[in-house]
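Self-study notes.
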Amino acid sequence: MILTVDIGNSHTVLGIHRDDKILQTWRLTTRSSCTAEEYQVIVDQFFAAAELNRAELTGLALSSVVPDTVQPFSRMAENFLKLEPLIIGPGVKTGMNIRMENPKEVGADRIVIAVGAYQKFKSSAIIVDFGTATTVSAVSEEGDYLGGVIAPGISISTEALFDRAAKLPRIELDSPRQVIGKNTAEALRSGIIYGFAAQIEGLVNRFLQEMQPDRANQQKTQQQKKQDIHQEQIQQEKQIQQQRIQQPGQHESSEQPENSKNYKEKRQLNQKNRSGKPGETQDTPDRPLIIATGGLNHYIVPETDIFDRVEPHLSLEGLYHIARLNKIV
């Protein structure tokens, strides 16, 4: 049984794994002042509530973006759980090539979710992590970490707005009824939720353009071909109308002229190109999988159709894979 711990700026998530499955997860508020003894009480209560025996633990993998939490949690693991934690950082095997100018500066949180995504889907991916900061990470088809962006998160952005704008009321974040707000609270709610949704849609589309330049060029070529076919159809329709005007007494025969046949075939082909369910692309290569994760994803995911998957435990799954790679499972 393995314990994985992801300590973020706002929340800490813990998971229990057995036989490649997550048995239990817990979430608590991150406190940089938390002591080893406090961590001991918290972990002990979690295990008791879930009726799990901590003596069955054989390993612990820890990722933290809050440096002050690493030492007390490690001390708790060594003294209380009798385990030496695997702390994700430079020198730890992750199985992922970090294609950054300075790989050491990439946050452990971004690496573990990228590892989790690639190991789960074996595909190129764009991963959006909704946390204190909103991060977007790119993973190649070969499983390399390509880089990403870091933007202010939903909570800290709204807090900054409320702190700086004295007359704006604090509101509960919820799904807006419509984009155009009819009062101040609705306008705030719409601006925050739809604003962040549009931000993510824009970033993801830009990621796709950079990760798949050949695909973007192919889509442009296909669009140009459709326009050419449409123009040719218009010209053929004009020719048919002119023939009917020049020969008003002649009825259409059962055998249509060759140009009419070509027009009909091309119209059917064009109709076929337009067919398919919304969101489907015809004759285009597969694109990177777009994945949402993080504790605040539930605010944005329902308001956009850009995501293929929602994986709330991606960081824990990445930690578990790294633990296996480093032979502590």
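Second protein, same conventions, sequence then structure:
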Amino acid sequence: MVVRSALFVELLGGIGDLIFALPAIEAIKRTHPNADLDVITFAPGGELLIGDPRVDRVLYAHRGPGPDAAEKMRRDVSEALKSKEYDLIVCDARHSGLHELIDAQATRRTVTHLWKGAGRDEPIPRLFLRRLREEQVIDPGTETIRARFLLSDEERRVARTIWARLGVEAGNAVVLNVHSGVPVKRWPTEHFVALGRSLAADGWTVVVPAGEAPRVAWDVAERISSARFVPKVGLRVSAAFLATAALVVSGDSGLAHLASAVGAPVLAIYGPTWAGRYGVASRSINLGSPFDCPERQPMNFTTQWCWYSGQCIYSNKVNCCEDVLPDEALDAARRLIGQCDERAIPAVQPPTNAGARTPGEDQHLPKRPTENADA
């Protein structure tokens, strides 16, 4: 199959989703090196692809609230489809009728069901590569591709300047990312403080970037001896800043996946999302909540009540991330830092039943939503 132009439609919604798609994007480019490869995605994640030699053009789709948001997004995708005669179109999302819109094109080859036959513990990047191989879109030799985010020399220079102004050697620093996109995925502030204090006592310098939660980050930094607070910087500079840290600790967030994609060791805390599918790639340890929640849906967390409501179904809990205790995280952090020169570190997968912490008596089980989100 000769491909002169290809379009990857990455519209799952988050920065982490874009990172998940990077191996598939690179595999397409390696298999079809002479093809123009465009990507349409959402802001702000799209800026991560600006200047990337694997991508020829970055297009943006509308994202926002309101009853007409999906229609505006479809209109943007439709305009992208009209902008060039594509030989190959790959889409990672099936919401809002995107797959129907793409399959209706007179394109020689479309792949619009990357989720077909997914396994519960099959990481998303590996799933996408497997599906593209099954569809004979990429070469068999591409199955080992990992997510890589490419930094410029200037971005690395700016990151070194930030570290220098902090008065910290990046290799002696542990970065605590206190923000995750939705409240149910956030590790409690008190847990971050307890972990940070223990790591500081171990001799590490704790650094807390503002990110999207500057007040929380400032509060955490203030409560940890000698911790440094870093004001918000751009996404690409953030990636360069994280690249040389000894360790990044985060809830399930785009920043955790971005840190992994630039080579930083990551300790990721998972609650309502299943680390077997959505976990951070090595070098990492993914600590899954041991709380045995009947709402957890490993195959599609967007069907869980907590995802729709932003609240845990149990009235005596904030979320299930809180059940990953600071002592457990400290032990994992010490193991990860001690093995940071290893190429692969086994992830700690969430327990299923044995030893799980069970729900208390004080609980509230609301009715499950009747409409399920389709990836």
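Instructor comment on the second fold: The longest helix spans residues 15-31.
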